[in-house]
Design a protein that fits this description.
Blueprint (H helix, E strand, L loop, with lengths): L12 H17 L11 E6 L6 H14 L4 E5 L7 H10 L17 H12 L8 E3 L2 E3 L8 E3 L7 E3 L4 E6 L9 H10 L11 H10 L10 E9 L4 H17 L6 H18 L14 E5 L5 E6 L1
Parallel strand pairs: 1-7, 1-8, 2-7, 8-9
Antiparallel strand pairs: 3-6, 4-5, 9-10
Helix pairs in contact: 1-2, 5-6, 7-8
Main location: cytoplasm
Keywords: ATP-binding, Cytoplasm, Kinase, Nucleotide-binding, Nucleus, Transferase
GO molecular function: ATP binding; kinase activity
């Protein structure tokens, strides 16, 4: 039985999240005076790779559209550095394998993201207004990926925008103390993701995460997809890569490449997942669903 009384067979992520966002939008709008330009409600969504974030988000957009709302969406993946800059980050950090490819804090263009989010938050202050969005193509460079130059063909958001969703595997992660990094590493078993890396590498990722705090300024609602077992990520991400390669003619990573790719993400989950609920910006206005290996919702929780 879930926190909201629904049984396993009746929980649908889109319904749980959709009803929550509509309710929070009403509350958000009530804070503004009648003549004020109301910005879009900023909603963060976090879930591990392959958990179905993108599928759930698309269904959520359809749900909200059917309620007459205009919704914008962006993935934090689209804010990765360009392929050239990802290589630069790797070359500048030769002793830190966590930065050998995209994924961990330090591999995103945080300034681009902050500027973009500021412009989206004020999109309703002028009419009409358009904000073009970046796109990161993961299939390029044998799966290393590259950010596609913004052009007239780029996706864009238009005013009036009611809801904006930013989704990503590390959305909401916050830095912790150096002592806490070391405590978590020492407390982890010998075969854990944290034990695979030098503590200096983990400290660097933690330090890099400070730059992401500016991304969270406008967010007041948090949606989270939580697995019953974090190791499900390896299975889901392999399935995801197979689907992409089947659709694009075989461009992408091998299974071994996927495993190595996911390995670099795991320390982030072990270090920072629990920091999401500590953020006062969205505490009391947020929702988590738990899914099993088949991506079936088994619980829903307010927090």
């Amino acid at each position: 039985m879930s926190a909201n009384g629904a049984t396993r067979s009746t929980i649908r992520a889109v319904d749980v999240f959709g009803q929550h966002v509509v309710q929070q939008l009403q509350s958000f709008r009530s804070r503004f005076s009648g003549g004020a330009s109301i910005p879009p409600l900023f909603v963060a969504m976090q879930g591990p790779q392959g958990s179905g974030k993108t599928t759930v988000t698309r269904a959520l957009i359809q749900y909200l559209n059917s309620s007459g709302l205009n919704v914008g969406i962006l993935s934090t993946d689209d804010l990765y550095h360009t392929h050239g800059n990802l290589h630069r980050v790797a070359q500048e950090n030769p002793t830190n394998p966590l930065l050998s490819g995209r994924g961990q804090p330090g591999t995103h263009d945080t300034e681009l993201g902050a500027d973009l989010l500021d412009r989206i938050y004020t999109i309703n202050s002028k009419t009409p207004q358009k904000v073009k969005l970046p796109v990161f193509d993961k299939s390029l460079f044998n799966g290393e990926g590259d950010r596609v130059p913004v052009s007239d063909a780029s996706p864009a958001l238009h005013s009036r925008l009611d809801v904006f969703i930013l989704e990503g595997w590390s959305m909401g992660f916050s830095t912790i103390s150096a002592a806490e990094v070391e405590r978590k590493r020492i407390a982890s078993p010998p075969d854990s993701p944290l034990s695979r890396y030098d503590v200096e590498a983990l400290h660097q990722i933690n330090e890099n995460l400070k730059a992401y705090r500016q991304w969270y300024e406008h967010f007041s609602v948090f949606l989270q997809i939580q697995p019953t077992d974090l190791n499900n990520v390896y299975i889901w991400r392999t399935q995801q890569e197979h689907a992409m390669k089947a659709a694009n003619g075989g461009r992408g990573m091998s299974d071994d490449g996927v495993k190595a790719f996911v390995d670099r993400y795991m320390p982030g989950y072990y270090l920072f997942l629990d920091t999401i609920r500590e953020n006062e910006q969205w505490k009391g206005r947020s929702k988590t669903i738990t899914i099993d290996l088949d991506r079936t919702c088994v619980a829903a929780e307010d927090w």
